[in-house]
Amino acid sequence: MPIHDLGYRAWQGRLVPEVFRFWAITVTGIRLAWQNRWLRRIVYVTWLPAIYLSVGFLLYEQFLAKDIPARALKQFITSFPVDDNAVGDDRHGVWSWLLWVFFRYPQGLLMVLVVGLIAPPLISRDVRTRAFLLYFSRPITRLEYLLGKMSVVWVYLVAITTVPALLLYVAAVFLSPDFSVVRETWDLPLRILGATLVLTIPTTLVALAFSSLTSDTRYASFAWFALWAIGWVTYGVAMASLNGTLDDRWTLISPYHTLGRVQSWVFGLERGPLAQPVLPALVELMVLSVVSLAVLVRRISSPMRI
User: Fold this and answer.
1) What is the pLDDT of residue 269?
2) Residue 7 domain-assigned?
3) Is residue 1 domain-resident?
4) CA torsion sign, 220 to 159 to 56 to 100?
5) How many CB atoms lie within 10 A of CB 270?
6) In a domain, 12, yes or no
7) Which of 66, 140, 167, 185 is the most exposed place for a label (fewest CB within 10 A)?
8) Buried b (16+ CB within 10 A) or exposed e, 198-233
9) Could you tell me the residue range of the domain that residue 283 belongs to?
10) Higher model confidence: residue 159 or residue 305?
């Protein structure tokens, strides 16, 4: 049977701009991660705290309208394991505190689980199967590969933190007596985005750095969870030994408490610009991000060396 029309042929499919080439890696990673049954369950659960926090906004707005006693709002605030002295007296302060609690407690803990399920296999699986040979045999740069892998984690983190937080803010506006509250709280969506950057960038880079250092996903997962567990336990032991009178600098030994400190500054709960407890925590997150990025670039570049 003869073969006709040999030679170059025009591409008949949909062309994608070069700037979006990384998105093919991202879409594949999102789809593969979603096949994890436990990840799907956790993502669904992460929306429940937003529903609970909406009760706090409702109680506060009803308290301003004098429809409920002050003790009901006080009981709700003291239900969280955090010093309520940081709560402001005005609407902006209370809303900021509630949004910070949302990022710090339910979503902060669930973030560790979500990233621990998504990030470890993203690069370690490519190392084990030598998928680098397939990726870099195509017109994909190291930056596009790295951006595609990071975007997988970012999409899930935005889905469990940013999106419910923004919807929580919108719900709070509708629970208010009128839309004039937007003038008082217009900056809170921007603070939500800032808290998202503080949460997503360092955690994603550290998790992917662990993933790039091994071809066994189990080791990357162990390193990720051990980082948070050891920091948390060390901070708790130090606080217990000093009877709860720790200096604020001790938060640097725990990544979880370091993130919470910087996020509290983003939401305006720390008094003064770059207050003394915040600056070391911010520097620590930046150093972790730069070191993790350097490790990632080196490990991703290694298969391309001759």
Assistant:
1) 80
2) no
3) no
4) positive
5) 20
6) no
7) 66
8) bbbbbbbbbbbbbbbbbbebeebbebbeebbeebbe
9) 18-301
10) 159
